[in-house]
Write a structure and sequence with these properties.
Blueprint (H helix, E strand, L loop, with lengths): L1 H18 L11 H12 L1 E5 L17 E5 L12 H8 L3 E3 L2 E2 L10 E5 L2 E5 L5 E7 L7 H7 L5 E6 L5 E7 L4 E7 L4 E6 L1
Parallel strand pairs: 2-3
Antiparallel strand pairs: 1-2, 3-4, 5-6, 6-7, 7-11, 8-9, 9-10, 10-11
């Protein structure tokens, strides 16, 4: 019975990936099936550490922190609080739905593309110059966000144009990212430049 359940669950995940999103989800009880269901519904983020130590105690090659998120950013905004996400932002090494901003690219905007709930702005050379994504409303408070990002330097804070809410601009190694909060001080959007 367990093999049949895994086969059905695998078939649902594979057919959903091939055909597209599905409005109904068949739930399973195994941790592997539940994890696959969550990835299909929300998206998936993963990050890397900056260094590692081998079993014999020697340092391995240092690696720049990175973070990759795939899927809808509005389903599960907790990745914006993830330590790996915060560090990767500092090092200009965050990828959302396969796109990463090149802080050294010529910044003049030429065209944009929307993928899931993320907008990617490009220059004439088709290099990504900005990523803008929404987050789930009324879930991450400004206080919680600032605590998670306290290791990154705040360049400026203020009120958004049109008095929609407030913003914070954080410094990265080669650029910056803007974070937007509504009038109730909840996160609703992030721009990576």
């Amino acid at each position: 019975m367990r093999k049949v359940g895994k086969l059905i669950s695998t078939t649902v995940v594979v057919s959903t990936l091939i055909v597209g999103s599905s409005a109904a989800y068949i739930t399973g009880s195994s941790p592997d099936v539940q994890a696959a269901e969550q990835i299909q519904k929300w998206g998936h983020g993963e990050g890397g550490a900056s260094s590692a130590i081998s079993e014999n105690g020697t340092n391995l090659k240092a690696e720049t922190p990175w973070y990759n998120y795939e899927g809808y950013t509005t389903y599960e905004p907790s990745f914006t609080q993830d330590y790996n996400f915060v560090r990767a932002l500092k090092y200009d090494n965050v990828s959302i739905n396969g796109y990463k901003v090149d802080p050294n690219a010529y910044i003049e905007f030429d065209h944009s593309k929307t993928l899931y709930d993320t907008t990617i702005n490009f220059n004439k050379k088709d290099e990504a110059v900005m990523l803008r994504f929404d987050t789930k409303p009324d879930t991450i408070s400004k206080k919680a966000f600032k605590q998670a990002h306290e290791s990154n330097v705040i360049l400026t804070e203020g009120t958004t144009p049109g008095n929609v809410g407030t913003f914070i601009r954080y410094e990265t190694n080669d650029s910056y990212y803007n974070v937007y909060f509504d009038k109730q001080d909840y996160l609703y959007q992030i721009e990576i430049h």
